[in-house]
Amino acid sequence: MKQITSVQNPFIKSLVLLQEKSKARKQTGTFLIEGLREISLAIKGGYEIETVLFLPELVSETEINKLIAPPFQLIEINKEVYQKLAYRDTTEGILAVAKTKSLKLSDLKLSDNPLILVVESLEKPGNIGAVLRTADAANLDAVLIANPKSDLYNPNIVRSSVGCLFTNQIATGTSEEIIAFLKEKKISFYSATLQNSTFYHTQNFTTPTALVVGTEATGLTQIWRDAATQNIIIPMQGEIDSMNVSVAAAILIFEAKRQREFK
User: Fold this and answer.
1) Residues 6 or more apart from 223 whose CB is under 8 A from it?
2) Could you give the count of Cα atoms lying within 13 Å of 190 in the half-sphere of its Cβ?
3) Cys-Cys crosslink for 177: which of 8, 127, 173, 224, Cβ 3.0 to 4.6 Å?
4) What angle do CA 220, 225, 230 make, to 5 degrees?
């Protein structure tokens, strides 16, 4: 088994770039996963693990072999190298290099009566992670990211989603591409917007449905307002006219789940 004990090792330097640079992740088609739970969810979600790096005082080779089926490269590292690569403050002693997945709309596998969330132009990794956690909790068919502003394999998204990046079907595209996809699949879509809207709970979400949310700052672009089956709004009774996008998405999603009797 290979051992690496220097942060100056070329392979370790390449992994630091994976953590820090979207360009490096796109060029190599790989990214880093940190933590036993996250790696386990990635494997369950069909991600291919290329390399595992571990601290032997925290994780045993036996544990790793129970978690991950071969083939993969196993590298023992020391604390200095681990701290150079680890993104979180909590120490679990294991990292994995995994291959990214296709994010094409054409690769999605939907049920006969899908419930989908569309998010447009979300930028903050924390919001994306929170949205993915909600989508996992509701067992949505897919999350579609229109006009993405962040690399989905950004370590902040991996971390804030607590592994739900791996448990959801995710696809990206332009707003125009996603609207065309929804129409082709005969999926009604409801755009959350202040303009020309009706209360969300008055709509029927029991048929193939996509719920569409945008950023807090600017909301959805005009194309989503114009093309929607119906624009919807969450009635608010305070002084402000918007809420966190992940909260708004959760309200809409679980109204749809309630209508579907949580099936």
Assistant:
1) 175, 176, 179
2) 27
3) 173
4) 120
- Kindly report the length of the chain: 263
Residue 1 pLDDT class (50, 70, 90 cuts): confident
Percent of the chain with pLDDT over 90: 91
Looking at the whole model, is its pTM more than 0.90? yes
What sign has the CA pseudo-torsion 137, 189, 252, 104?
Answer: positive
Question: What is the Cα–Cα distance from 82 to 80, expressed in whole angstroms?
Answer: 5
Instruction: Tell whether the model's pLDDT for residue 243 goes beyond 90.
Output: no
Environment class of 170 (CB within 10 Å of its CB; exposed 0-12, middle 13-18, buried 19+): buried
Residue 29 pLDDT greater than 90, yes or no: yes
Q: How far apart are the first and last CA of the chain?
A: 47
Q: What is the 3-state secondary structure (H, E, C) of the chain?
A: CEEECCCCCHHHHHHHHHHHCHHHHHHHCEEEEECHHHHHHHHHCCCCEEEEEECCCCCCHHHHHHHCCCCCEEEEECHHHHHHHCCCCCCCCEEEEEECCCCCHHHCCCCCCCEEEEEECCCCHHHHHHHHHHHHHCCCCEEEEECCCCCCCCHHHHHHCCCCCCCCCEEEECHHHHHHHHHHCCCEEEEECCCCCEEHHHCCCCCCEEEEECECCCECCHHHHHHCCEEEECCCCCCCCCCCHHHHHHHHHHHHHHHCCCC
Cis-peptide into 71, omega within 30 deg = yes
Which residues are 192's β-sheet partners?
232
pLDDT band for position 242 (cuts 50, 70, 90): confident
**Other Cβ atoms closer than 10 A to 240:** 7
